[in-house]
Structures are given as structure tokens and as C-alpha cells.
Amino acid sequence: MGIKTVAVYSEADRTALHVRMAEEAVCIGGPKPEQSYLNVPAIISAAEITDVDAIHPGYGFLSEHAHFAEICDSCNITFIGPSAKTIRLLGDKIVAKDLMRKAGVPIIPGSLTAVKNKEEALNTARRVQYPVMLKAAAGGGGRGMRVCHNDVRLISALMTCQAEAQASFGNSEIFVEKYVEQPRHVEFQILADRRGHLVHLGERDCTIQRRHQKLIEESPSPAVDPKLRRKMGEMAIRVAKAANYSTVGTVEFLLDREGNFYFIEVNTRIQVEHPVTEMVTGLDLVKEQIRVASGESLNMKQEDIALDGWAMECRINATDPSNGFAPSPGRIQVYHAPGGPNVRVDTHVFAGYEIPPYYDSLLAKLITRGRTRQEAIRVMQRSLDEFLIEPIRTTIPLHKQIFSDPTFWRGHISTDYIDQLLGIRET
Asked: Residues 146, 204, 229, 269: which is the catalytic one?
């Protein structure tokens, strides 16, 4: 696109690949997130010193921070994402849920406002009937969430969720909703310009997760037929229109065993798993994100969108599945990434890289494509066999186990698949 890039980095990330590959790089503070990647004054200072026109917030830290988007706007810097108003609207799950209810989008039964005390939580749970899910009104990533099957569990989990939500998001509000048992997690990628033109780019199945953290994604979903895809896609567009959405985002749904689906939330940013959609649509989503943020109109209509083949992504994390997914920081001594046709690796690491203990454990994303689901699986199996990251413990052995499992091959999975595979009991 001919765009000059400026990278920001913490003291812990001095050697990271994004620092090496950018045309200019600025250190913005110490290793802890609050010293650097959450340090708004330092980021804005770096932007002003280097005279940038726009900031791409990535998919973590400040990517869904409405006030940061407002500050960018006040400094005449384009925030590559939706408006601060839209981020704030969709960032509050209670407000978003009510908006979707009014727009005619299916929502999970539960409290329409945050529960004020345990009595309200108990009354809601008894009304919608157990099991129920406690959810933080702000944030995501599995924090501030618990499944409750009875009154005792709900009372004990409520205070835990409130404390967790306050620590993670600065907002202790919790709401209660019916727990959909053994669902699939299906999300729709949306793309919208600032003139109200919207398209969806099909679905991604993100059902394989551990403690609400996604591990594997694929597109299309083996559980979604053309009729259901059309219906869910129409609802994803309705969600985006209700929120006056622009640029790239993701509408997340729960799909139950009877084929009913329910709105969960909107991620107002590019997703970790966006390469899966890129592999089956041929689109560069970051490029499209930049284009529409700069004021360009969409150059496509819904009828232009087609899913070609099948794609899958494995998140390679520095955690040890054999030891309760304990973190595995340290220095990478051996790094060998797979390659070849229909294989993509997105990463910031290399041989000699020291994994810092301050950030998310994601080391790399391994994406494969095939003409069919079976072919995409076989390419992934070969790629996992070739992928070496040593001596760090990673999720590669777990991915190998999953991709060899007949249940996964058949696509008969739900969000508790990993716990069932590993014999883990919920705590």
C-alpha cells in the first residue's frame, strides 16, 4: 500500500520481529503493559514525534478502548477501527444485549441489567432455570465468567467474578444469562465503510476453546449449511447496522444443538483468527481495514463474497497442556516453522527470542487451507509435525492430539470438547 510504518515496543520487546521489520520503531516504556502498551500518553507522544497519520491498535491492549479512540481523534490521528461511540456502546455487554433485543436479534434469556446483589442474581437464575452463566459486563477473554448449576455455586462465583472483572476491566458489573449447554461458538466477520455499506465474509467456527480462550478456528463451520449461513449472516448485518458499525469487526453467536443461535457480543477490532477468513475469501482484511478507515468506500457487494475451500488455524501458545496449561516462558533455542503451499505462519518469534512473562502466551498462528475440510486437516497435521519450538513447552502436542481425534474429524464438537478430550473437570 506504500504506507510507511512506525512500530512501538516495550523494553521487553526490543528484539521482537515487528520492531525489526518496521521502518521506524519507538520504545514507549517498561515491560509491564501499564508502562507501555496501555500507556496512552507515551503512545500518543510516539505518534506525534514520528508524525503519523493513523494508529492501528492491533487486537489487544487498547484495540477496544473507546477513550483511546477519542484521544486519537482529538489529536487528528485516525484510529483504525470503529468510532469511540460504537466501541463504548458494544463494549458494555448489557447495553449491547438490550440494543440487539430491540433490533430483533436473538439473545440468550437472562438479566437485562447488571445484578446488584446475590438476591437479584438468584432470582434471575431461578427464573431462566439452571445452569446459568455469570458474565462480566465489560471486557472478554474468559475473565469474569463462571458456569453455575445451583444456588450455592452461584453465590460463591458471583463475588469471584466481580473481583475478577474489577481487576481486569475496572468494572465489577456482572449479569446473568441462561447457559446454553454444549453449544458451538460461531462468529461472522463483518466489513463496513463509513457510508453505511456492509458485507459479511462468512463464518468462523471457534468452538474448540479452553476456559473460553480459543485454540482452533476454522472456516466455514462444519455445523452451518447454506440456509443457516444466510440467516446468521443477515443477523450479523443487522447487528452492525444497529450499532452504526464501520471498518472490520466480528459478531459472535452461540449455536445450540437444535440449530438455534443467539447473539453473544461484537469484537470491535481485527481478530486473532482473521487469517482463516483471508484464506477462504482471498481478501486482506488489514488492508481493507486501513482502506475504509481512510474514508474509501467498499468495493464489493454481498453477492461478490464467496468461500473458496476450507481453512483452519491453530494458536501456538507458550503453555504446557500436560501441566494444567501452565505458562512456559524462557528462551527459544530452536525455531523451525513449516512451509509450502496452503500454509501460513504469523509470528513475532525466532531462534534466540526470549519469551517475556508479561503478555499473552501466543507465539504463532499456524493456518492451513485445503479444497475440503479433510484436506485442510491433513495439511495441518503435516505442518504441526514440522513445527519446532524448543525447549519451550507449547500447545503443539495438544493440537496434534486434536487433529488425530476421530470426533474432531467428524466435526461433532462443542465448547466443552477440550475438557472432555483431556478428562478435565470444571472447577
From this structure: 269
Check whether residue 43 and residue 125 sit in a common domain.
Answer: no
Residue 153 domain boundaries: 109-178
User: Within this chain, do residues 133 and 258 fall inside the same structural domain, yes or no?
Assistant: no
Q: Looking at residue 154, what is its pLDDT?
A: 96
Q: Which residues, 6 or more positions from 111, have their beta carbon under 8 angstroms from its beta carbon?
A: 94, 120, 121, 124, 175, 176, 177
CB contact at 8 A, 344 and 279: yes
Helices first, then strands: H and E counts in the chain: 14, 21
266, part of any domain: yes
User: Quick check: 133 and 179 in contact, CB under 8 A?
Assistant: yes
Q: Does the structure show a pLDDT above 90 at 139? A: no
CATH of the domain at 161: 3.30.1490.20
Where does 20-145 show beta strands of DSSP type E?
Answer: 24-29, 54-55, 78-79, 132-136
pTM: 0.91
Cα 381 to Cα 37, 209, 273, 312, 406, distances in angstroms: 35, 19, 19, 11, 14
- Is position 269 annotated as part of the catalytic site? yes
